[in-house]
Amino acid sequence: MKICSGDIIVIQDADLEYDPSDWGTMYELVGVRSVADVVYGSRFYGKPHRSLYYHHYLGNRFISVLFDMLYNQTLTDIEVCYKMFTRAVLHSLNVTSNDFGIEVQISAQIALNRNWRIYETGIRYYGRTYQEGKKINWKDGLKALLYLIKFRIWPGNETKGKYRVTE
Questions:
Q1: C-alpha 114, offset from chain centre
Q2: Which of 26, 43, 138, 147 is a Cys-bridge partner for 104, taking CB atoms 3.0 to 4.6 Å apart?
Q3: Bridge-partner residues for 118, per DSSP?
Q4: Is 91 helix (H, G, I), strand (E, B) or coil?
Q5: Distance between CA 58 and CA 61 in Å, rounded?
Q6: 3-state DSSP assignment of residue 86
Q7: With contact defined as beta carbons under 8 Å apart, do 165 and 55 qualify?
Q8: pLDDT tens by residue, 57-78
Q9: How far is it, in rounded angstroms, from Cα 146 to Cα 4?
């Protein structure tokens, strides 16, 4: 994120579990209509998605509901690695996580800012099995729960990390 040069930034995994054709809907909200500063993709909003592991779904829903309660939001899928946001949002972030905790940290900082207009839209999801290369596991879910609490109780704590995203 340090080397991003555009006015609008997209975070997407390189494994193509998320369909880049969904950028159009996201861009419409951020770049064309300018009604959103941040758009989250959601694997749970009616678009085609591969049905995989129930425990992953349950864990994600639990983490998302807890996030919503702690940060006063209504996001359905904070663990999604599919976000679009403006350069101004990028400059407000101070990312120090170097694992799947980045999802919670970015979301916490956006939510706690209280100035960003946050939207969510359905995306296509072509999830992989562990045999196909999926890497996330239950330990990452436990870490996400700890990050939810850490970034809510000590929101300034993440500013003591490795780098600040700035121009």
A1: 16
A2: 147
A3: 38
A4: helix
A5: 5
A6: strand
A7: no
A8: 899 999 999 999 999 999 999 9
A9: 29
137's CB contacts (< 8 A; 6+ apart) are none
**Tokens 């997209």 belong to residue:** 10
Structure tokens at 96: 């120090």
Q: What are phi and psi of 47, to 5 degrees?
A: -80, 160
What's the alpha-carbon Rg for the chain, to the nearest Å? Answer: 15
Judged on CB neighbours under 10 Å (0-12, 13-18, 19+), 58 is exposed
Q: What is the pTM of this model?
A: 0.86
Residues of the chain short of pLDDT 70, as ranges, are 155-167
Contact 163, 102 (CB under 8 A): no
Which residue is listed with tokens 């996001």? 75
Contacts of 159 (CB under 8 A, 6+ apart): 94
Residues 106, 82: Cα–Cα separation, whole Å? 12
